[in-house]
Amino acid sequence: MTDRTATGRRALIVGASRGLGLGLAETFAEQGWQVVATQRSSSPELERLTGTGVRVETADIDDDASVAALQQRLNGQTFDLVFVVAGVATESDKPLHAVSRAVNAQVYLTNAVSPILFAEAFADRIAPGGTLAFMSSVLGSVALNEDGGWENYRASKAALNTNARSFAVRHAERDYGILLLHPGWVRTDMGGAEADLDVATSVNGMVAVIEAFAGRRDVAYLDYRGETLAW
Ligand SMILES: NC(=O)c1ccc[n+]([C@@H]2O[C@H](COP(=O)([O-])OP(=O)(O)OC[C@H]3O[C@@H](n4cnc5c(N)ncnc54)[C@H](OP(=O)(O)O)[C@@H]3O)[C@@H](O)[C@H]2O)c1
């Protein structure tokens, strides 16, 4: 049975067509949040959530015009949570030198630059005491990189972490906190069938971490259990 409590809180989940973003949109809505969730192209799984507290929107974070159009369509709306979930791992099974410059650059742009540009576009839509969250990864930790692998992806998430910290300094007067979240290793298209966690376990953990973080103004790098990760 769904526990639908009217919290009055509002979330913008960016990259919710499948995987973790889809799970986050569904879970926040189940917990009574009003959710705006974005897809790039039609996602039947996301669209079936329409009417359950989820409004489906369209945006490609790599496309400035698309982000600007979303900004216009959501004009006047504020959010307790803006969560940029979208990410790619193109050819991340290969070492950096075996991947073309164009693909390495695209992974960097999508994972490390576009989320920050999106945040800039929506920074003034985050409610006081709210949260700006980015989907990072433990692979983005420079300190914890003792196993290598996932080279272009790993570097892009490290860059996302550092770009988010620069964003935090640039917005030092903000009245919201900034979260870099590691969802665990999760069975999605990206995580693969061998991953440790199902989507529900990861998403329920992240939702609890976000709830606990509300009202903070600092920058934190946490996993889905709320454990602090080394930068
Ligand atoms: N799964 C894991 O184990 C794991 C671990 C650590 C971190 N993460 C991170 O968690 C996030 C979600 O991953 P996932 O496992 O759910 O992967 P996924 O199943 O591959 O889903 C990726 C999502 O990102 C969207 N996306 C990609 N590029 C986009 C763009 N330019 N604009 C808008 N949306 C875009 C995709 O949309 P389309 O359907 O249109 O492609 C899809 O909704 C990613 O940032 C990933 O790096 C995942």
Overview of the molecule:
The chain has 231 residues and is α/β, with parallel strands linked by helices. The protein has one domain (10-223): Rossmann fold, CATH 3.40.50. 36% of the residues lie in helices and 19% in strands. Strands 3-2-1-4-5-6-7 form a seven-stranded parallel beta sheet, with helices on both faces. Helix 1 (19-30) crosses helix 6 (199-213), helix 3 (64-73) packs parallel to helix 4 (101-122) and helix 4 packs parallel to helix 5. NADP nicotinamide-adenine-dinucleotide phosphate (NAP) binds next to helix 1.
Order of helical and strand elements: EHEHEHEHEHEHE
Q: Give me the CATH fold name.
A: Rossmann fold
Beta-strand level of the residues, as a percent range? 15-25%
Radius of gyration: 17 Å
Classified by CATH, the class is Alpha Beta
**How would the global form be characterised?**
globular
| Cross-sheet strand order for the largest sheet | 3-2-1-4-5-6-7
Calculate the terminal CA-CA distance, rounded to whole Å. 39 Å
CATH superfamily: NAD(P)-binding Rossmann-like Domain
Q: What is the makeup of the main sheet?
A: 7 strands, parallel
CATH architecture: 3-Layer(aba) Sandwich
- The tally of strands reads 7
Low-confidence stretches: none
Tally of contiguous helical segments = 6
Overall SS class: alpha/beta
Count of spatially separate domains: 1
**Quaternary arrangement of the chains shown?**
single chain
